[in-house]
Design brief:
heterodimer, A: mainly alpha, 6 helices, globular, B: mainly alpha, 18 helices
């Protein structure tokens, strides 16, 4: 009987430990990776992005545009880091951060214009959670620092983990 | 034309306009209170609707007979059109469609909220009372950019009042209806087409009551044809492009426009009847393909009715178009009666829409092609 009680207690503790270590995952869906730097259509993509910035006029549409871009560059960054393209991945993550930060004033502008932004705020929070999940995965699979040595230029140090932590903080501020 | 008929026509239109308020949107609570004092069951409402449609088509046939006998003079035609416009303008659009509310909602998204209506849906503005009226609030703009640009005029004239905006949209569409008739009359000098198109009950109901923008597209196509025929090629092409940018259906007329451009650039005379005949065929093709996008809506008939009316040589075209006009107006019956789109409503709608036109087509095929060969 005592053994059965011990076993029961063991399973209860095990269950608690296992469940407490599982964190709720965001249901927000990130896009598939699009064309990557170096591909022949990547420059066309960049031009298209600029054109689309004008198409997405209006504060709500601008919010959507910036969030979409942030999503896109986050996925691009993750893919590039996976392929150990640290410089390109680093730049893509910086871009993702830039667009993510740009989403905030757009949402505030929409709010000040009297538009109901509850759904967008909710979407933004979900996006932030998902971004943090993905960025943490990058953190686990990248070196803290990477020295980039181009052929004809001086080497530069990429503080990858510092940028990743900064990226997480930017997202956490949105929560 | 006898005065009695004119009075009867006017009274019928007036009663139909009053009847349209029976379908007033719940958003207009004060109108609902007035017009729903005497609630009627769906079968009675449907019966009244059918009676009106039959009366209007019988009157239309009567006008056509008078026209054929040369007893319908221009003065009478103007009077009939004037009465139709004056009375039906005051009808309520939700009798058969809520599209006018979509136009208003799209205009509000564009000009009040200053958002791109192709990206932002009206439903995003959850606090806005326009959602009480809009039935497709969860859709981004369905119409062309030139239409959205034009809607700034009626939207601004509405001065923020929903009722005023509603009627300024109706007025806007009405002006294009009159513009189309002026093009038929003065531009193409076709009095027969003026009556065939201008007094067709489907055209009157879908344009002057429901306020559909198809007439704007048709107006621009006709203007484009007229300009091209008069050698103003660049302007003609511009107006054709604008028509496509109202409602994309007129894109199917590109081969006709290219043919016209080619002929006119060589200074060759163009047989306008052939132009209208092929335009009819192409627009009918677009009409029949419309289920690929959503479904066949009665107001899409305006796309081909204009060319069926203008085409003088092939009678069969107009008989089929006329049969379709009638059956398309009856297409509303299953929903009116049952109140939902569940089976068998869609099948019934298809049967009602195509039975009569197919019968007319087969009759003419037999009479004109098969019978002469076997007799």
């Amino acid at each position: 009987m005592k053994k059965l009680g011990e076993m029961l207690l063991f399973f209860i503790i095990l269950t608690f430990l296992l469940t407490s270590s599982v964190r709720a995952q965001s249901g927000y869906v990130l896009p598939y990776p699009s064309s990557m730097p170096g591909s022949s259509v990547y420059k066309v993509h960049l031009v298209w992005e600029k054109i689309m910035e004008f198409w997405y006029f209006g504060s709500l549409a601008q919010f959507e545009y910036n969030l979409k871009q942030s999503d896109k560059y986050l996925v691009e960054s993750k893919t590039l880091f996976e392929y150990k393209q640290y410089l390109l991945g680093f730049k893509a993550l910086e871009k993702s951060n830039h667009y993510f930060k740009q989403s905030v004033p757009r949402l505030e502008m929409a709010k000040s214009e009297g538009k109901n932004v509850e759904l967008k705020e909710d979407l933004f929070q979900q996006a932030a959670k998902k971004h943090i999940e993905e960025i943490e995965k990058i953190l686990a699979n990248t070196p803290e620092v990477f020295v980039w040595s181009p052929e004809k230029e001086d080497p530069s140090t990429l503080e990858i983990h510092k940028l990743i932590k900064k990226s997480i903080n930017i997202r956490k501020n949105a929560l | 034309m006898k005065n009695k008929i004119l009075v009867f026509y006017s009274i019928s239109l007036f009663l139909f306009s009053a009847f349209s308020y029976y379908f007033v949107d719940q958003g207009f609570s004060y109108l609902v209170k007035i017009y729903k004092i005497f609630p009627l069951p769906a079968n009675i409402i449907t019966f009244i609707y059918i009676v009106f449609i039959i009366v209007f088509f019988l009157l239309y046939v009567y006008f056509l007979i008078l026209l054929k006998q040369d007893k319908l003079k221009m003065k009478s035609i103007t009077l009939l059109i004037g009465i139709s416009v004056a009375v039906l303008f005051f009808s309520h659009p939700t009798l058969l469609s809520y599209d006018i509310f979509n136009y208003i909602a799209t205009a509000k998204v564009s000009y009040f909220y200053k958002e791109n209506p192709y990206l932002i849906m009206p439903i995003e503005f959850r606090d806005d009372n326009l959602l009480e009226f809009t039935h497709a609030a969860n859709k981004t703009a369905l119409y062309g950019p030139f239409w959205i640009l034009l809607t700034f005029i009626p939207y601004a004239l509405g001065l923020g009042s929903y009722l005023l905006t509603l009627f300024s949209f109706k007025l806007f569409v009405l002006l294009f209806y009159l513009g189309t008739l002026i093009l038929i009359w003065k531009g193409f000098k076709n009095i027969k087409a003026l009556v065939l198109f201008g007094l067709n009950p489907l055209v009157l109901i879908e344009t002057l009551i429901s306020g559909h923008n198809d007439i704007v597209m048709v107006f621009l196509v006709l203007l484009s044809y007229l300009l091209l025929l008069n050698g103003k090629l660049l302007l003609g092409v511009i107006f054709f492009i604008l028509s496509v940018l109202i409602k994309y259906a007129s894109i199917v007329l590109v081969p006709v426009i290219l043919f016209l451009l080619y002929q006119r650039s060589k200074n060759r005379k163009v047989n306008i009847d052939i132009i209208f005949y092929y335009s009819f065929i192409l627009m009918m093709f677009a009409f029949l393909l419309s289920p690929l996008r959503e479904e066949i809506y009665p107001w899409y008939a305006i796309w081909f009715l204009i060319f069926a009316s203008l085409s003088l040589s092939k009678k069969m075209i107009y008989y089929i178009a006329f049969a379709l006009s009638f059956s398309l107006m009856l297409r509303y019956i299953p929903y009116m009666l049952i109140g939902n789109y569940l089976p068998p409503v869609q099948s019934l709608k298809t049967i009602i829409t195509f039975s009569l036109p197919v019968f007319v087509f087969v009759y003419f095929l037999f009479k004109e092609k098969i019978w002469p060969k076997i007799s």
